[in-house]
Design a protein that fits this description.
Elements: E1 11-14, H1 20-30, E2 36-40, H2 41-56, E3 62-68, H3 72-82, E4 89-93, H4 98-108, E5 117-121, H5 129-134, H6 141-154, E6 159-161, H7 167-174, E7 179-182, H8 201-207, E8 211-214, H9 216-219, H10 224-235
Parallel strand pairs: 1-2, 1-8, 2-3, 3-4, 4-5, 5-6, 6-7, 7-8
């Protein structure tokens, strides 16, 4: 990706906490060891835009992970409301359909500064074939990811969130310039926790991921900066 000089710049650390002080401490401590911070629903619900501003004062790029999924007009309004935070990435659920994704992309175009990348969530990395069947999706996770990836690209999105195990197939389906953001990343020395479809950081990059989202292996480590260093070494 343009602007990436070092492998560690591909890492967004997931600050999944309601403790704003801890989030600020981690963000400042990890600057120069990871490429950006990801703030999601847990943090945003507790602290809103003011909390986000406190974290991004560290100067790192922001992945605002709120996974919008609503009618097109509402999602467009939410994207416009997020623009003052200057996120590098915002996301929506690709399952919201073409018109919703088109509305999100058009809303991002209203950014006065650098336009954020709008990406679509395909299949959550916690979901299995059984989980999908229970909600009426009668196909394998990979098939559904490919379907939503093609739809996201056709709708004007910049990329998708996917499991690393789907990266190669997606590249073949949507081409080399579509951003692939991969969560569910676990170094060999870390627990998988509640993620089902996981791979190591190096494997994900070798497969063709553009950005990695890594949370607990870094933030739950006794020394988060050291954990980030170990992952950077693994990436090479």
């Amino acid at each position: 990706m343009v602007g990436i000089e070092h492998a560690w710049q591909r890492i967004f650390v997931a600050l999944d906490t309601t403790d704003v002080g801890r989030a600020v401490e981690l963000a400042h401590g990890l600057k120069g060891s990871v490429g950006g911070v990801k703030l999601g629903k847990e943090f945003f619900t507790a602290h809103g835009p003011d909390g986000v501003h406190r974290v991004i004062e560290c100067g790192m790029p922001l992945f605002l992970d709120l996974k919008y999924h609503d009618i097109p007009n509402t999602v467009a309004g939410a994207i416009r409301a997020a623009l003052p935070l200057n996120p590098f990435i915002v996301n929506v659920h690709a399952g919201g359909g073409r018109r919703m994704m088109e509305a999100a992309a058009e809303a991002a175009d209203k950014a006065e500064g650098i336009r954020p990348k709008v990406i679509g969530v395909t299949v959550l990395t916690s979901m299995t074939r059984v989980d999908m069947a229970e909600v009426g999706i009668d196909e394998e996770p990979l098939e559904h990811v490919l379907r939503l990836g093609r739809l996201a690209k056709a709708s004007g999105l910049d990329g998708v969130v996917c499991s690393a195990k789907e990266v190669v197939a997606l590249r073949g389906s949507v081409g080399p310039d579509f951003m692939l953001v991969v969560p569910g990343i676990r170094p060999t020395w870390a627990s998988a926790d509640d993620q089902r479809r996981v791979v190591t950081p190096k494997d994900a990059i070798d497969l063709g991921a553009d950005y990695l989202v890594i949370g607990r292996p870094i933030t739950g480590h006794k020394d988060p900066t050291e954990a980030a260093r170990l992952i950077a070494e693994e990436l090479g």
